[in-house]
Predict the structure of Aromatic acid exporter family protein.
Amino acid sequence: MALARDRRPSLLHRAGLRDAGDDVDTARIAEAVAYLRHRGRATLRDRLHQVHLATGLAVQAGLAAALAWIVSHHLLGNPQPVFAPISAVGTLAASVGQRLRRTVELIVGVAVGVFLGDVLIYFLGTGGWQLGLVVTAAILLTTFFGASVAVVIQAAATAVLIVTLSPSTEDLELPRFVDAFVGGGIALLVTAILLPLNPLRVINRAARPALDLLADQLDVCAQALRDRDRGAAQRALDRLRENKEELATFTEAIEGAKETSTLSPARWHRRSELTHYAEAAEPIDRAMRNSGTLIRRSVTMIEDDEPVPDPMPDAVVHLAESVRLLRHEFAVGDEPERARERSLRAVSEAGRAYDQGVGFSGSVVIAQVRTTASDLLVASGIEQEDANRLIRQAFGDKDKPGGGPAEQHAAPKPPTAPPLG
């Protein structure tokens, strides 16, 4: 036993071994904890942002439900005005920008459901199998005529109510129609007259996550190119690929703003200001996708140990700043001249990087800088043909015959952007 104890490492020695291992473990644990803390903060921030975005809709829905109940119960004498507030909330819960369409769908669905319910009750009576037949017929009929999902659901739900409640409730059909009109109409009244949201504010809030995401990941990519940090560039690429939710929110907000500016007299003066955003949605989407290609090729550049000229990360940084300036100038209603200038400066820096010499993936990154800058110029209101001309002018003469490899050893040009106009 004594010999066995002697063979054991001493307590102090074992502690030393643990300390040596703990150096690695502690660093890993600290990194994991820091990641979780950052993720927790980001999640909380995202949730608070979503609550902030939903506040206006929540207030509108509450007001519309209350008014629909009051009108249906007190003014129209419906003793149980359940469907009127449901219709109001259902209309407001539709995708922003489709509320007028949702009201029409609501009424059409109710009409189909009432018609089928009454016809089949007249010929077949009521009961379990009759209910199943009515619902099946409502879904098949509305699907055959190419109705939307909302019409199909509304027709089936109304048919269920007609079949199940008609034996105990007389004259159910007319109140159902009236409630559909009241609920949908009051929802539109609230959004257009009583409590119209500021369309530009709605768009600015929705655009911020999408544009900030793009700008932030371009910044990360630029730093990764400077540091030759393949992992950082890959993380930026992965994060940018998760942009579907931000883009969907942005696009939906544009549609909602256009609907509000159409229905609400108080917002008619905003129509011209909304034009910038409406026309910018598609080129911003292209800029997102082209930036993804830019970052992906940056990852390959680092993996293949290709040369990274100093102006190349600067070009990517200028792209990121152009995105931020575009968002800011749209938000305050200014002409996005600074965003345009910064996009052209990015192209000018890309031209300097090309002059200093790049590899295959580097040439793709240069091309994507140009393409993304062109997208941002179009998003700012420049015509595509003019944007292409300005991009070529900012990049230099390297697109022309005689330009290119022979000029790669020429003295670098200062990063100036040509004047617009």
User: Anything to note?
Assistant: The two ends are 93 Å apart (CA to CA). The CA atoms of residues 210 and 247 lie 6 Å apart. The chain has a mean pLDDT of 75.
